[in-house]
Amino acid sequence: MSAAQLLLQEARAELRAGLRSGIVGLVFVGLTGYLLMCLTNADYVQQMGGTDIPRNAPSLIYLMSTGCMFFLFFAWAWVFAQPLLRDRQADLHEVVLSLPVCLPALLWGRFIGAALVGALLASALIVGFIAAPVLGWLGLVPAGSIAAPPWRALLFAWGWLLLPAGTGIGALYYLITLRTRSVAGAFGLSALLMLLWMFAVVVLKGGDINPLLAAVLDPSLFTFAHTRIEAWTPLQKSTALLPMTPGFVLNRAVWGALPLALLAWALHGVRRESMVLEAAAPLAAAAVPAAAATQTPAVQRSLAPVAASHWGSALWLETYWQLRQLARSRGWWAGMTVLAAMCVLSAFVHGIWHADGPLLPRPDLLLPLLKDATYLVIAFLIAALTGWVWRRDQVDGFDSMFDALPAPVWLRPFARALAVIAMTVLLSLLPGAAAVLVTALALPAALDLSDALLYQLLVMAPPLLELGLVSFLVHALCRRAGVAYSLSMLLTFILVVNHELGMADYPLYQVGIPVHLQLSGLSGWAPWRAYLLALDGYKLALCASLVAAAVLVLPRGVDSRLRQGARHIGNRLRGPVGVLASVALVGLLALGTLLNAQLIGHGGYRPLALIQREDAAWERRWLADASAYTVAGGDLRLQLDPAAERLQGAWTLHGVRAATGSLHAELPNGFVLQAATVDGRRVSAEVAYAHLVVPLGACATRAPGCTLRLQWSLAPNGWSAEGQPAWLGHAGFWLRAQDAAPRLGLDPDRVLRNAGDRRRYGLGALAVLPPDAASVASDAIAPRGTWRWSLQRGGAVSTAVTHGRTQGPLTFAVAWAADPHQTLVGPLRIVHDRWRADSAPGIGTDVQAMQACVQRRLGHVGVVQEIAQWPRGLGEPRLLGTTLVLPEAPSWDVADLGVGRSLRRARIASALARQALANAADLRQGRSAAWLGDGVAGALGLLCVGDVDGLAALQQALIRSSDTTARVLADSDVPVGALTLARSSGWAQHYAALAALDWTARQRPQDFDNVTRQLAARVPLADALAAHAGPQAAAEQLGAPLASQLSLQRDRAGTRIDASRWRWHGGGWKPATDSVPHYRLLTRRDGVVRLQAAPSSYTRYPPDSDGLLLDAWPSYQRNPQQLLLHPETASAPPP
Question: Which pLDDT tens digit goes with each residue over 557-578?
Answer without folding.
Answer: 665 554 555 667 777 788 899 9
